[in-house]
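New to this. Please check this fold:
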Amino acid sequence: MARHRYSCPLRWSDMDAFGHVNNAVFLRYLEEARIDFMFRPAREGGVSSLAGGAVVARHEIDYLRPLVHRHEPVTVETWVTKLGAASMTVSYEVKDEEQVYARALTVVVPFDLKAGRPRRITDEERAFLERYQDDSAEGAVAA
């Protein structure tokens, strides 16, 4: 099972009054990693429809350690833990070589922008996503 790896820079403005990365900023890190996953490797694999529209149905984050500003980026690993007919669950770890700062998941629903409604996952999308699928509990947020 492959994991998509995204190198995410930390910005000075990401910190809150307590001197660590604000909890809401983690959502932006996850979004950056998820968009990179759905745009870059998917397109390289011949699947451009994932970039054409998707909506977030749910986020869940477990904050494990405070993340403080530094010049080195963190790595956000992304993989698929559930693949349904019209939704997927993307899991993440925000980490560096020494520790994991957060684990998270996002339920994503492909969306037809012209019709204004959710759509089913295509065969091409499913084939791409299955390369990144791991439905084991490792790395996933506890339910």
Q: What stands out?
A: The chain has a mean pLDDT of 90. The domain at 4-130 is CATH 3.10.129.10 (Thiol Ester Dehydrase; Chain A). Strands lie at 4-8, 54-63, 74-83, 88-95, 100-112, 117-118. Residues 23 and 63 are 8 Å apart (CA to CA).
